[in-house]
Design a protein that fits this description.
Elements lengths: L8 E11 L2 H11 L3 E6 L2 E5 L9 E5 L4 E9 L2 H11 L5 E5 L8 E5 L5 E5 L31 E9 L2 H12 L2 E7 L5 E7 L7 E5 L8 E7 L3 H14 L3 E7 L6 E6 L5 E6 L13 E4 H5 L10 H5 L6
Parallel strand pairs: 1-4, 5-8, 9-12, 10-17, 13-16
Antiparallel strand pairs: 1-5, 2-3, 3-4, 6-7, 7-8, 9-13, 10-11, 11-12, 14-15, 15-16
């Protein structure tokens, strides 16, 4: 009999992105992506998509180099948080408690086997729109901004890792993630994993770092409502002089409709529409992609650009 699933983590809550060009990056996320500033503290600015329910989903922090500061996951309850802390606290992965941050209460920090910093929290601040941003419908977090790409919500993130299998086992064992799709090379080495806490097909992905480095970041992704929004976003990026790396196109893995660009600080950003794919089966069997299948490229035949395999932040 399979062990009882761990359902203690509710969802991906936020991500801290590091940038050596803080003002230019802020202008990009506000004016081009269409995000809303929630507040500022020290060298950080807190941002959100127009229908994110929390105070922020992106913490933009000034730094000497680009990359990810940490990823934050919200637990389902105070008790759920305590269970995950109990599982982690005496392991090599534990860092310890922090007092929290703007937008959320106390958080327990740990590292995955690759060194990426993870923050687990429960207490959170729900976004309260000021009068000028209050929506007409009370079940919406904020008025539609009608600015730039109008990204709706944080969707997922992607990190690079030296050892995908070790990271998969970590997330399954300590955080209760479910594997939905993966790439396994002919050698048997795992080259990619897509994992979820929810009925979304994935909350985050890890792909193998071609440079053999550890702890690097690949991209963060905000969702829009339709494929048409992504086509419009391509024109918006073009007019704003934002470098487009790949897309618009459709991934084979997870079937996400995508568009990848680089923000001024050097980090890769994706705008995506995942369509209607949901993982509803409690006994979902992970989809395994072979090396040969992935060499075919994306869903409609577009070959994956080389930089997608080699570029990450901080650069090496």
């Amino acid at each position: 009999m399979s062990p009882e699933p761990i359902l203690d983590i509710a969802h991906l809550g936020h991500l801290e992105l590091l940038t050596p060009k803080p003002q230019e990056s802020l202008d990009f996320f506000v004016d081009v992506m269409g995000m809303t500033e929630s507040g500022r503290s020290g060298d950080s600015v807190y941002l959100r998509g127009w229908d994110d329910y929390e105070y922020h989903t992106l913490k933009l922090t000034a730094s000497a180099k680009p990359g990810m500061g940490h990823m934050g996951f919200r637990a389902r309850s105070p008790q759920a948080l305590e269970r995950r802390v109990a599982a982690l606290k005496d392991t090599e992965f534990a860092i310890g408690w922090t007092d929290g941050d703007d937008g959320h209460g106390p958080a327990f920090r740990c590292r995955d086997p690759d060194g990426h910093v993870i923050e687990l929290y429960y207490e959170t601040v729900r976004y309260e729109a000021p009068p000028a941003l209050r929506p007409a419908l009370k079940n919406q977090a904020q008025r539609f901004p009608a600015r730039g790409c109008n990204v709706r919500r944080l969707d997922h993130l992607n990190c690079l890792a030296r050892d995908i299998a070790a990271n998969r086992v970590f997330f399954e064992t300590y955080l209760g993630c479910r594997l939905t799709e993966q790439i396994v090379l002919d050698s048997g080495i795992e080259a990619g994993m897509w994992m979820t806490f929810t009925n979304k097909s994935y909350d985050f992905a890890y792909t193998r770092d071609a440079t053999g480095s550890m702890g690097r970041f690949h991209h963060l992704t905000y969702a829009v409502d339709s494929r048409e929004d992504i086509l419009r976003a391509a024109d918006i990026f073009l007019e704003a002089g934002v470098p487009i790396e790949s897309g618009p196109h459709k991934h084979a893995v997870q079937q996400t409709f995508f568009l990848y660009v680089f923000e001024p600080g050097g980090n890769r950003v994706e705008i995506a529409n995942a369509g209607a794919r949901l993982i509803l089966a409690p006994d979902w069997k992970p989809v395994v992609w072979t090396e040969t299948e992935r060499k075919k490229g994306q869903a409609w035949g577009l070959k994956t650009v080389e930089s997608f395999h080699t570029y990450g932040t901080p650069p090496v």
